[in-house]
Design brief:
By secondary structure, the chain is of the alpha/beta class. Helix 6 links the parallel strand 4 and strand 5. Helix 7 packs parallel to helix 8.
Length: 340
Amino acid sequence: MPRPKKVQDEIEHTDEAKLEETKRNLLPTGIDVQALVDEVKGRYGKNEKALADDLTTGDNIQLPDEDSDYVLSNTLRSWWSDLVGVRGIPFGRIVQIAGKSDSGKSTTAMAFMRAAQEAGVLVILWDAEKKFGIKRYKNYMGGDPNTLLVTRNKSILNGAKQVIQYIKVAKEQNPDVKILIVWDSVGATLNEQEDDEGDDYSKQPGVTAKQVGWAMKKFNSVIERYRNLKTGKETIACLCINQVYQLIGSVGSKEKGGEQLYYLSSVILQLSRKKDLNRVTKGNKVKFGIVTRAKVRKNHLFDGEECIAELDLVVSAGGIQLASDVKGKSDIVGWDDEED
């Protein structure tokens, strides 16, 4: 019995579409690229999905598109997604926030730490500057300092090893746990020779860069090692807080830590304070926040035609806001008119 014309047309259309797709995938040598990829993927078992997912064709490469693939916060999302092009810090990547002192770097780190905790992500804080504010993090930022894993070691090599030990033990207890590493800050951490009274000052920059590079490679290694092979999901993200210094004899600035940190960072944001925010309390002039400018120095996550290059932000004890959203004093997080 002959097929109805409509059904026959659909079959022919489907066959034509498949033929066109095969033609697109067919190299002049006669190799079907998609079939080749499928064949290689099929040689991995069910428990090796992550390895199979590494294999694809160029037109199928894309960034993760689920909230669970990112450390994110609704309060950060309003400006972070505009600047970076993604909704948060993606697991499986290294992100760097750099800037001079008092530009909002640690506040940004705290905001992501709180967001991670709210999502059940384990946070490891490498507090190399030994300045983490417990009261501020708890009372103003809304974070939970009791569930933070912290090392306050100021040595690059020892601190990195302690962070990795935290990760190993956490993964032994729960292989599926997601982790956010926060290193605050790279520039404040010491290399091995800086503890030696007989060190050669001229060698310090090179030694620091090498040891920071070693630490970053170690972090990159554990990011890959603890990728979930069954689901293909990344489970570790890394946020590095860094200082910038002026380039002597030239215009501009540069992040500390050497080339490895720069190369391994998928995103680098530079924050620079524009002005202080002050108010009069009980007859005294007090500072309650700053206006800072966030500028994109490097972005390997955005693949569109153009993106916002910089935004002005208001940084206060309670968090970060878009400066354009702050129309008056009452819009600022933490503002209390009763104290004026």
